[in-house]
Amino acid sequence: MAIKWFDSLLLRSITSFDDLAKKFLARFSIQKDKTKHTPSLLGVKQGDWESLRSYMERFDKAFLDIQNLPIEAAIMGLINNLWEGPFNHSISKKHPTSLNEVQERAKKYINIEENSRLGETSKTGHSYPPRDKDKESRKKEDQPTEKPRKYHNYTPLRVSLVDVLQGDMQHREHPTTSPD
User: Fold this and answer.
1) Residue 77: other Cβ atoms inside 10 A
2) Domain range 36-128, its CATH number among 1.10.1200, 1.10.10, 1.10.3470, 2.60.40
């Protein structure tokens, strides 16, 4: 942000370092009151259909706005606010030790995501499939609550269950030993 401001200064509008310092402080002293703290990072969550690239860009911007943020806190904030997906599973299995590692791993998954989205776009004509919550709930309602039985016909027993259980109990009380 400071570089953009510096580049926007008119040519020869600064006559000395003191002049530059005054203009800089006048422009950026307002920003001092807007300092963000660690909890503000928790509000940066990946949206339902937000791409990983978009989320990482928003996260990086929020991270830069917070001063003295421990790296571990930033990594945990990023992991906790990702939606379920391949990148989340990868990071959960092997926790990164630096933000550079997070960004390198994210680049791989961003490329995979964008390549798969390009394939979907060419087939369907749009990048995201429409989300039909009613259809999902109807699928759940249509499914039977009990599992269907595997067999429809069973062979009838020639002995009653009581006799089978009594025989089992007698066998347990007086086990037969096999000759060795």
Assistant:
1) 23
2) 1.10.1200
